[in-house]
Design brief:
This protein is mainly beta. It has one helix and five strands. The protein has a domain of 62 residues: Roll (SH3 type barrels).
């Protein structure tokens, strides 16, 4: 009795007007995944600055970084970081973040 009547263009009732794309299932990847062969890692090294830090190992110094100041005993210097002992806790500070350092005065201890 109540039959559905279809009026208008059939495209008006389509779910999606975007064209359908199908993947070709026969296509296979021919490349092999792996690490590149010729990789060279570099680090910016400032030899004079590092040499000066080496001369202050074991002394109380103030290191000013881009974030703030740290006061402690210089424990170790590596190619990319310095280790500062602050109240028994070791802080590893990247050399590229150090703005300057100086010997700590007695008042800042």
């Amino acid at each position: 009795m109540y039959r559905f009547k279809y009026y208008g263009d059939p495209q008006d009732y389509a779910l999606s007007t975007a064209p359908q794309y199908y993947r070709n299932r026969d296509a296979q990847r021919t490349e092999t995944l792996g690490l590149p062969n010729d990789v060279m890692y570099t680090a910016a090294v400032e030899p004079k600055f590092t040499e000066l830090l080496f001369q202050h190992i074991g002394l109380k110094i103030v290191i000013t970084t881009t974030v703030g100041k740290l006061v402690g005993t210089l424990d170790d210097v590596s190619t990319d970081h310095a280790t500062l002992d602050v109240l028994g806790k070791k802080h590893h500070i990247r050399l590229c973040e150090i703005v300057y350092f100086e010997i700590a005065k007695e008042s800042s201890l």
